[in-house]
Amino acid sequence: MGDQLRSPDQLLIKRAPANPSRVLLLGGSGAYALPAGTLGERLSSRRVRTPYGLSSPVHLYERDGLRFFFLSRHGERGYEKTAPYVNYRANVYAAKRLGVERIFAWTGPGAIFPRYRPGDLVLPDDLLDFTRNRPSTFYEGKGIGFIRQSPVFCETARKALRSAWGPLGGGKRLHVGGTYACTEGPRLETPAEIRFLASAGAHLVGMTLCPEAFLARELEICYAPVAYVTNYAEGVKRLPYRRGTLFEGMLPPSLASAVEAAKNAIPAVALAAAGALAGEERDCPCAVSMERYRKRGVIGPDFRDWVAQPGRGKR
Ligand SMILES: [Zn+2]
Description:
The protein is α/β, with parallel strands linked by helices and 315 residues long. Helix content is 26%, strand content 20%. It has a single domain (2-305), classed as Nucleoside phosphorylase domain (Rossmann fold). The protein has helices spanning 2-6, 8-15, 88-97, 155-168, 191-199, 209-218, 256-277, 291-295; strands spanning 23-27, 41-46, 49-50, 53-54, 58-63, 66-72, 102-107, 110-111, 121-123, 126-130, 174-176, 179-183, 204-206, 222-228, 231-232. Zinc ion (ZN) binds next to helix 4.
């Protein structure tokens, strides 16, 4: 195994010539605590060296004939890294370096929209970015920008998720569409912040999709999130303070098992969606988001030459 970890590129090429993985399942909260066997067989693991530091560990798995990469955003054994401290650029760069074309990402936000409840699943279709202290681009100090953000997420991947949900969702409530507001964290939001976000059109509030989704777009990777609602946002319901518990009362104890079941249902659905799209040529705006710069000769075929070295630009 030691040799494999030292030369994982060779390992991938040797073991998967006809079925290279083009998919990354990006796990959010609870990704380190999935039931045994959920992801199938692990073939290799590595951390990728990037201009932004080492990525989180990226594991190559195989399940039902599908090879895919898996990365747990918040840690390997538990919730070790809160959202503001995730190295989003290193992780998305690593995905591109490994040849990933589609990212299915999950996230556990709170519900602002009154019709959502903990344990529901949502396929969001829009973002509000209220993060403050995160590097949000690969193109610091370069003349590259103005990348269109509509559709915000890959429509092809979202459709595949929706189709996969029917037979695999186990009757869990799925809402298609919704705006996810991303806050900086790691603290939770105040009641006034939630009222403000609701008035701005947010249905969900979380801390992880920004800048991850934007970074994927910058490297022409399709990106589609699945949200599982983990709690009510502050002030949405009158909930007593419960000392010493997760979310301190914002997740009613009676709904905790529904939340866990919703999270555990995500990998199978995302992998079914990935399998349905495997081998299909991409025909979506995400795949050509940098085309204008390619046409002008600003960027070449190797994405590693596209990105700026960190700290080079002004913020
Ligand atoms: Zn796409």
